[in-house]
Amino acid sequence: MNAHQSLAVAEPLRSREPVAPAAAIVEPMVRFEGLSKTYPAYRDKPSVQALQDIDFAIARGSITGVIGRSGAGKSSLVRLINGLEKPTAGRVVVDGRDISALSGRPLRRAQRSIGMIFQHFNLLSSRTAAGNIALPLEIAGWSKADIRTRVAELLELVDIADKHDRYPSELSGGQKQRIGIARALATRPSVLLSDEATSALDPQTTRAILDLLANINRELGVTIVLITHEMSVVRQLVNEVVVIDGGRIVERGHVADIFTHPKHPTTQTFLAEVLGDTVPVSLASRLEQRPVTAGKAVIRVQVQGTEAGDTVVARLARELAIDVAVLSARIDEIGGQHVGSVILGIPGGEAVSRQALFFLSQNDFAAERLGYVT
Amino acid sequence: MSPELINLIIQATGESLFMVSLAALMATAVGLPVGLFLATSRKGELFAAPSVNAILGVIVNATRSTPFIILVVAIIPFTRLVAGTSIGSGAAIVPLTVAAMPFIARLVEAAIREVDGGLIETAASFGASPLQIVFKVLIPEALPGLVLALTLAVVSLLGYSAMVGAVGGGGLGDLGIRYGYQRFMPEMMLAVVVVLIALVQSVQTVGDYLARRLNRRLRHR
Fold first, then answer.
1. ipTM for the complex?
2. pTM of the entire structure?
3. CA distance A319 to A156
4. Nearest-CB residue to B216 (from A110, A126, A135)
5. Which chain A residues have a beta carbon less than 8 Å from that of B212?
6. B3-215 CATH choice from 1.40.20.10, 3.10.250.10, 3.40.50.300, 1.10.3720.10
7. A276-373: CATH homologous superfamily?
8. Angle at Cα A205 formed by Cα A241 and Cα A270, nearest 5°?
């Protein structure tokens, strides 16, 4: 979102002042160029091609969600951004710097502008909340006085100022992740990487942490790249989605586009799982392949778009003058779009159900007959 | 028991404590860095040097598998070289140190390996140098384990120090053998054993207390 805004701002600037640093504004935060990563064979394990032919850019100020099955290469992608791993081929440019070409002291300096938060928080149990947040600052060689002020500032930012002297063992998961976030932001990084940062938290805490991340993105302009398998994260926070499968990017784009028109099977499966497109077990067990006398045909209708789904059941009922039963439904709002599916029961035999399918296809709804129930 | 004998016990206790504390200090000075290196130098680790790690491992194992009493005799030329003599408490410190070094190294290695690998990666992702990782992450996080390791080493050294008594090393073991065994003074033997038990007990108690105080993970549960 922010990237679009900054582009919009850049346009008039460029027309008035041709030499304005438009390139610097357009320059993406992270750029992968022809990137491949192969882990060499080790002992009895064969070599693994974790990523191949990765070519894409992450816009400044955006929140990008990387989704995919476990083992798809998501973690490798993130570890390449902060230089913990070196690509086998190609390069990773972060904030205009080729991070893959750096090593030793220059790499360590560059890493200070890339913060990271973790699924299991990774806090030092031997340090207090304040001590943990101070760690990256100590590493960067800040003075004691500067560290003290900065830590107080950060505790305030993540809303746990009262936990200054608490040890991680005394804190809840949400509080620990807040310390993790404060620690990651300590050195004022331009990118924040998140590796399943909310996977170990309950839904309510997850929502609070996501709100915090959204605030940080909005107020500090920090670009966020997050790996996740959680629908709630994608729905609540992300604006760009990258789908990885088998080490390749199989689909990417704006969250609403990806969710309303998923093209790749992996994306479709992911969405089906999180959107509940799958038929409920109780219904699936009752499904018959042949028509049942005095039964209903079971039809699944995909709902996509701004208000499309809202009236489909009513219109269908009116059109065919039948009592349409809603057997199962799940509709979510993602990026202002309604996405989901409704499973309907159509009484009245073969002719009526064929009529219903025809009506739905006429109105641009993807619909299919799953079977029949009594 | 006569005052002379009590004086002997006090003197021998002093000798034992002298041998053990000096040996523990020197063995730790060597064992701690060696253990740190052993824990961080396998393939893919912080100071990856797999071949050095393997060689060091063999040396450590060789020293540890030599029975202490044989080690004492075997390194007499080395002891003479370092201490100028092979008799007395001062000389006994040499084999005690040599025996405790690899023991401490292995204990330190185990304590350091207990630290969650994710923390190393976390610090690395913040741009920490390997030495910063050692001093800001590994040692502080392993501290309770390190304290327990050193406690165990000191207790073992107390046992070893009694053994060097058999070869003229002085201390409580020497007293127990010469008076308790060779002069058939069971009350002396008993006194030596009681003093040793008290020493081991207090070292262990202090070590446990320190480790518990340092362990933030358990402190508040």
1. 0.85
2. 0.79
3. 59
4. A126
5. none
6. 1.10.3720.10
7. ACT domain (3.30.70.260)
8. 30
